[in-house]
Amino acid sequence: MIYDVCIIGGGASGLAAAIAAGREGASVLVIERMDKTGKKILATGNGKCNLTNQAIRRGCISSGVYRSGQEVFPLHVLENFDAGDTLAFFESMGLYTKARDGYVYPMSEQAASVRDILCWELAEQKADVVTGQEVKKIRVGGKGLSKGGFTVYSVDNVYQCRKLIMACGGASASKLGSNGSGYRLAECLGHHVSAPVPALCALHCKEKYFKELAGIRLQGRVRLLTGGKMAAEDSGEIQLTAYGISGIPVFQVSRYAAKALQMKKTVTAVLDLMPAVSDKGLRARLMWQMHASPKWTMRMVLSGMMNSKLAACLLKCAGIDGGQPCCKVDDRALERLIALVKHHEVHINATNDFEQSQATAGGVDTREIDEKNMASKIVRGLYFTGELLDVDGICGGYNLQWAWATGILAGSDAGRSCRVKG
Questions:
Q1: DSSP one-letter code for 344
Q2: What is the per-residue pLDDT for 46?
């Protein structure tokens, strides 16, 4: 059988593309390397599936929420399919949603609801699905095909189609789906690929004292410097681990660290461990407490301000004996302590690997893709979607929105073009 549309990858963007193509009347095949489709969807939003974000609206999408070699590309794509379109798409299948602080979740707060309803709709569109089939080779054209078309080779089978949608995903969390093989396939078809690196992940630090701080959580701010220049910053709950720093603010800046390390640049993070108070304010608080209670030890002075393990570490780094009376601490030592609290510099030597990252930065060069329909500008009838492209979003539903938008734009165009020719 020659299918109208073949989709390689049964993740979020692949399922969306298959449904969109089916709704256009196209015959559809989904090829998935895992034993089931949509496995990665089940892990999103801590099992609740943060579908999208209400901030993704036509005309007011912030340039800072998506990162790409071509910064305007994702913004132009989402002008064609925003969060409102995503909600309408899911409501058309009977999935209702609710929002919390702009984050949109299924009403059930179960990611399984999202995956199930996509699979049910796929069956409703009479799409064929094959699982456990990793694609090894793609050839443009082939026996039995008229002008154009594709022949797709897996280990066990050969498939043919008129239009081909590459929804293979990135390199993150291969146990749940994609393993980065889509990049090789894209290059074999003539596309350029920006080398992928982990994104939305924790960062490893050179400093040995993190072993003593593992498990501490605090409200803070992180500024990331690459090659001595400011690259990104974010604030929120920072988690200290045995190997370094984690938490949402760290995830948000991690792709810049990964890119810089890939280019052999020095990477440092400057942490503000008490962002609610200024340098001047912290100095005033410390001096007041030290004056009011001169016999208190410095450990006692800090006990009302921060975690005791963190306080002990900072005092040691500042060269202050935590057991000595605070009245004996000189001004220079006090300034060192304030700097360590407000401008704590750590040296980044690695990121978590792909298996421990939530997204991938890098991918197919978007200059080679039509922003209106995700069609290749190099190979006629070929489309790229989702994480396979050189676009990655911040936490908060932005990456799933990218998957839905690119999948539906590609699937709709591929299905419609087959119908027109038919």
A1: E
A2: 85
Task: Give me the residues paired with residue 413 across strands.
Answer: none
**Element containing residue 253 per DSSP (H, E):** helix 248-262
- The phi, psi pair for 124, rounded to 5°, reads -60, -35
What are residue 378's phi and psi, to 5 degrees? -105, -45
Q: pLDDT tens, 154-180? A: 988 999 999 999 999 999 988 888 889
Integer Cα distance of 121 and 126 in angstroms: 9
Tokens of 22: 């089916």
- N- to C-terminal Cα separation, the chain: 16
Could you give the CA distance from residue 339 to residue 255 in angstroms, rounded to a whole number? Answer: 27
Pairing of strands 217-226, 267-272: antiparallel
Beta pairing, strands 2-8 & 28-31: parallel
- How wide is the angle at C-alpha 281 spanned by C-alphas 276 and 285, nearest 5°? 105
Look up the pTM and report it. Answer: 0.93
In the block, tokens 């949603």 appear at 97
Per DSSP, the three-state class of 332 is helix
Secondary structure E strands in 175-266: 193-199, 203-205, 217-226, 229-240, 244-246
Torsion of CA 167, 165, 180, 195, to 10 degrees: -110
Tally DSSP H helices, then E strands, for the chain.
12, 20
Alpha-carbon distance of 366 to 376, in angstroms, equals 9
191: its two tokens = 């596309």
Per-residue pLDDT tens over the stretch 265-283: 999 999 999 999 999 999 9
Residues 6+ apart with CB under 8 A from 332: none
Structure-block tokens of residue 395: 């936490």
Task: Give the phi and the psi of residue 69 in degrees, each rounded to 5.
Answer: -65, -25
Residue 190 confidence class, pLDDT cut points 50, 70, 90: very high
How much of the chain, in percent, has pLDDT values that exceed 90? 92
Q: In degrees rounded to 5, what are phi and psi of residue 231?
A: -110, -40
- Structure tokens of 288? 């007041």
The amino acid occupying position 312 is A
The mean pLDDT value of the chain amounts to: 95
**pLDDT for res 193:** 97
